[in-house]
Amino acid sequence: xxxxxxxxxxxxxxxxxxxxxxxxxxxxxxxxxxxxxxxxxxxxxxxxxxxxxxxxxxxxxxxxxxxxxxxxxxxxxxxxxxxxxxxxxxxxxxxxxxxxxxxxxxxxxxxxxxxxxxxxxxxxxxxxxxxxxxxxxxxxxxxxxxxxxxxxxxxxxxxxxxxxxxxxxxxxxxxxxxxxxxxxxxxxxxxxxxxxxxxxxxxxxxxxxxxxxxxxxx
Length: 218
Prior knowledge:
This protein is an alpha/beta fold. Helix content is about 45%, strand content about 20%. The chain is built from 9 helices and 7 strands, in the order βαααααβαββαβαβαβ.
């Protein structure tokens, strides 16, 4: 049995889940439009590799501060059906299915919040989700994040922690899939690295290292 690690945003789905979620909240009247401008500015920094993950999480979680988890869960279920599942790459579904049929353990690991990543992973049949922790106090979102930031080296840290907590799982090899140069530590951590629709810097690294380059289309 192997371990298969899938990034979520622009790897399994064709867009960024948090950006889609914020747009959904604004369209429903649950968040101010200004949060979209802030998120776009932060994502521009993300693609340049200069984003502050702390600033990103603080901004993107702010609309949930004071909201009941039960209310938000209902919103997220509707959001996933409308905005996430139609954006899953067919090739990503095939690859997930391939690993599942092999009996591999499939983990979706993302720098987005666990309130989104966990239910998306469940819908896709993954065994586990690793994401940024979202603080809940007395069944209400505080608007703050917690735990390891699953971003860059934080993804490898989170994976290693999960493995230490699940010693009964013994893996022969590790597979990793991502579109982003920010996931270079995770790709380097794997025995089999697949880069999905990479930009020029990651494409060059993949070519130099003999990694598989995939062009997944909707």
